[in-house]
Amino acid sequence: MRVVIAQRNMLVGDIEGNAVKIVAAANEARRLLGADLVLFPELALTGYPPEDLLLRPSLNTRVVDALAEIAAHTEVPLVLGYPGVRNGVRYNVAGLIRPGEAAPALEYFKQCLPNYRVFDEKRYFQPGDQARVFELAGVRIGVTICEDIWHAGPVAAARAAGAELILNLNASPFRADKHAERMDHVCARARDNQLPVIYANLVGGQDELVFDGGSFAVDAAGEVVVQGGFFEEALIPVDVSRDSGELKLAGARLTVPDEEERIYRALVLAVRDYVNKNGFKGALLGLSGGIDSALTLAIATDALGPDRVEAVMMPFRYTASMSREDAQAQARTLKVNYRELSIEPMFDSFMATLAESFAGTQRDTTEENLQARCRGVLLMALSNKLGYVVLTTGNKSEMAVGYATLYGDMAGGFSVLKDVFKTWVYRLSEYRNRKAGQDIIPRRVIERPPSAELAPDQKDQDSLPDYPVLDAILERYVEQDFSAEAVIRAGFDRDEVYRVVRMVDRNEYKRRQSAVGPRVSRRAFGKDRRYPITNGWRPGD
């Protein structure tokens, strides 16, 4: 028997369009690869996560109609994820669809509903409580869905019901170390139950989530025998045979990318899908001559191609000549559209208008923020005129401590580096240059001290700790939930820790107003980390 994993990129809410993709993938798997069964990811029919679309009154009717259309046009049995309302109760379902049969031949209801980090499935679904097993080509096959495989019960129940093989449907979002963690759990379930497992994962970008694919299969001893590709659609054959009564799995085993490649490709996929799925003509960004915008430009170009990317240098009196030179050089190397628009006249006009109101005051960050807001106005005007989304260029380190200007450099529709610490910005820039075999990101941009260039001789470290120290503190406080005192006990300076922690806490209001951006770490700002803006929590606790 040949099972083909259909690792597909679905559009959330496009039930009819997704059904067409499902039929096309299933029939291609049958005709080109000889599939006896095609396995799709969790909630493939609606896309994942559908969120409150699940509460729309018409959704269940549209799902039922789509399932009938799929059965009418597919040439091979398939196991598919979709939401289903049964006796007034909504479940996360995996159904067996046979050609020509209007209703699913078998349905399994997800038993373990995740309700942590980015997941809130208990808001929408009730858990199932029974194993379901079907037979195909003499093999008894059990079905589980995503979180079920992270717990012992569902697979053990399937084995008790007679399963010889487990199909696991997933919509497991990416983070840097996630694939290894998935492997650990799936291999443990296989070993514990002496059952091979075929793991199908979703691929694609969906707002702040990225699904990396990487579907695979393990044998009954918990050894990986099939490994699919990452960050792209694929049809992945898994051959199932018997040897002395035991099931054996076989297929191609592709290389798992290293951490830098995984994160970079996740960001590229996130940008591509956000722009394309939302119908933007392209993307534009402010190219400052600094490393954050340089990396963002490289990612955007890889995602969309140079013809759909526009870089805008917006110099001011504090902009160094090397910044203009490096920005122009990178734009030329990547062959993107490039223009320079000085903010000097705008800034002077604003200051003239505000002169009376500002009389008797000293220059401070107000004038610095005004520069950033002039740039934001220009970018948003170009966005409106061209139909391009503005990519903001701030990184996680800056967003954590509020080193950004509301309605200035924060203005935009998608924040590419929102979950990427500054130290990782450097690592990813070096990775991109190594991959290209040339300096896609100019060497001087990587080596010069980072600066917002909003004041004479300004450097980031005038206001912030050195980035390796800052990021180490942030990683503990933001991602691991260390208290300030716990961070100090880990070896960091007390005054510096409390300064950073206070900046993180008081800038929640800025992060709430920031553009959505892709999640690549264990804990991102947004769905992953939701803190009240107004609160009296003591950071040392």
What does this entry look like structurally?
The chain has 541 residues and is an alpha/beta fold. It has 16 helices and 20 strands. The chain has helices at 15-33, 59-73, 152-160, 178-193, 259-277, 291-304, 321-334, 344-358, 365-386, 396-401, 422-436, 443-447, 467-479, 484-489, 494-506, 508-512, and strands spanning 2-7, 37-39, 78-86, 89-97, 106-109, 133-136, 139-145, 165-170, 197-201, 203-206, 209-212, 216-218, 224-227, 234-243, 246-250, 282-286, 309-313, 337-340, 388-392, 414-415. It has a 7-stranded mixed sheet with strand order 5-4-3-2-1-14-15, with helices on both faces. It has a 6-stranded mixed sheet with strand order 6-7-8-9-12-13, covered by helices on one side. α5 crosses α6 and α5 (259-277) packs across α11 (422-436). The model has no long low-confidence stretch (mean pLDDT 95).
Summarize this structure as a short list of keywords or feature phrases.
541 residues, alpha/beta, seven-stranded mixed β-sheet, 38% helix, 19% strand
